[in-house]
Amino acid sequence: MALEGPAQTFNYMLLGYGVILGCIGVLLISMLARYRALHRDLRMLDELEAQAKR
Amino acid sequence: MTSGGVLPLTTGERARGYLRAVGAVVWKDLAAELRSRELLSAMLVFALLVILIFNFALELDIATRQTVTSGVLWVTFAFAGTLGLNRSMAVERDRGCLDGLLLAPVDRSALYFGKSIGNLAFMLIVEAIVLPAYSILYNVNLFRLGLVVVVMLGSIGYAAVGTLLASMAVQARTRDVLLPILLFPVILPVLISAVKATNAVLLGLEAAELWPWLNLLIAYDVIFTAVAFMLFDFVVEE
Amino acid sequence: MQPMPRALKVLTWVSAGLFAVALLMTLFYAPREAVMGDVQRVFYFHVASGWVGALAFLVAAGAGVIYLLHGSRRWDAVGLASVEIGLAFTLANLISGSVWARPIWNTWWTWDPRLVTASVMELVYIAYLLLRQGLEDPDRRARFGAVYAIVGFLSVPLTFLSIRIFRTIHPVVVGNNDPTAQGAFDMTPPMLQTFLFSLFVFTVVYIALLWHRVRMQALAEAVEQRKMKLLSA
């Protein structure tokens, strides 16, 4: 039974791309979030150290 | 000689000293175990219980038994082995023996070989009891030389890597649960080959079915004993 | 923390740009595959992700070796960063592989050597992170991480080999056509170009992410040190 043209797999394609971009996206978001937290800590440390000096 | 310095050892003396150190570590573990028999009885009871559970978990009728025995045995050995490894290394840590051993003027690798031979011995003892027990319970003939060889090779690889990883796991907060997590992904080649080789022996398959697995087991044993022995130093330095 | 080096800024923009180009290429430049249809397009990024996963594994093991030999914390950071990135890309590889398999072979999973090996690699990655998490001492964390990365890296090819041998002795047990063919199709030149370009782009993205993550680790350690100093003052 010959297929008439390629299979209709568009939805699966979207899912596949979504998964890959999603995983990379989660990695990026996690890195960004941790980065922000570190900078917050850094600012807090600067303040605390300035206070300690006074 | 009035210098008061240490006389240099000949190669032969150093080799003998090394072997003595290894022997000392092995004997320490075996002797302690012979006295208390805690570890062995725990491993043994556990292994037999696992076999029992398998009886209910899998339909071990005569037909399936043939094909499934190999897997059941190795799952049992893997789990019991984890128990033994954990206890063996935890004991060192808890009783502070590790520090004592590290202070001894002996090459760290002697410590590694001593511990892994000891762990191997425990595994072999348990296996030597489980195999006949399984034979009797399930009426399967497990008394074959090929099987002994495969079990030996598989256990060597298991103990070689397991000793190294257990030394790390035992120093972590999550020690009990961490060893299987570390060990199982890494020990898969051994398990796969051991199961397939055992299967080949039990079903009396031709040599071409058996040899690739034996070769893999040997290769794995050699590679990982060498690697573990080299890396052990980094795992016990304080 | 030192300001971001210009090279990294450039690299970041370049990798983002390249990624966009690769995405467009896979969607519009590469032709639609004759049998499988659109889902085949996932293949380009699927394989590229797998490639990054393997590369990251290699880098982590190598960084581990260098760390054990030299003790420089920078290499521990490289190892950790590589594992985290490898974890994400291998996950992308695994799930996208599953998504591709479903319409093609009518199953979400096949026990073929590559998929299983990728799963094992993922488990080793996770175990690595769990090991580090369970340790308090940063020096021990670095040492043990290095040791495990090396052991893991050596065992994964052997796992692949065992499963491969299993497959050659026992032809397909699972009920589908030929898993080892990986949904074989012939690649026309545009497909090949897209494929190679995707591999290249993902490698560049990996390097950029690695660099960023290593810098972040240096920052984290500096913050940790200052916290300790403040607490003990």
Structure in words:
The complex is a heterotrimer of chains A (54), B (238) and C (233). Chain A is mainly α. Chain A has one helix and no strands. Chain A has one helix at 10-53. The model of chain A has no long low-confidence stretch (mean pLDDT 87). Chain B has one domain. In chain B, helix 2 crosses helix 5. Helix content of chain B is 84%, strand content 0%. Chain B has 238 residues and is mainly alpha-helical. Chain C has 233 residues and is mainly α. Chain C has six helices and no strands. Chain C is globular and about 70 Å long. The chains are: A mainly alpha (54), B mainly alpha (238), C mainly alpha (233). Chains in contact: A-C, B-C. The interface between A and C is medium-sized, with 29 and 39 residues.
Residue windows where pLDDT falls under 50 for at least 5 positions of chain B: none
Helix content of chain B: over 70%
**Strand fraction band of chain A?**
under 5%
Stretches with pLDDT under 50, minimum 5 residues of chain A: none
List keywords for this structure.
heterotrimer, A: 54 residues, mainly alpha, 0% strand, rod-shaped, B: 238 residues, 8 helices, 84% helix
Brief summary:
The complex is a heterotrimer of chains A (54), B (238) and C (233). Chain A is mostly helical.
Write the layout of secondary structure elements.
The complex is a heterotrimer of chains A (54), B (238) and C (233).
Chain A: H1 10-53
Chain B: H1 11-36, H2 38-57, H3 62-94, H4 97-103, H5 108-138, H6 145-169, H7 175-202, H8 207-236
Helix pairs in contact in B: 1-5, 2-3, 2-5, 3-5, 3-6, 3-7, 5-6, 5-8, 6-7, 6-8, 7-8
Chain C: H1 6-29, H2 42-70, H3 73-105, H4 113-133, H5 138-169, H6 189-232
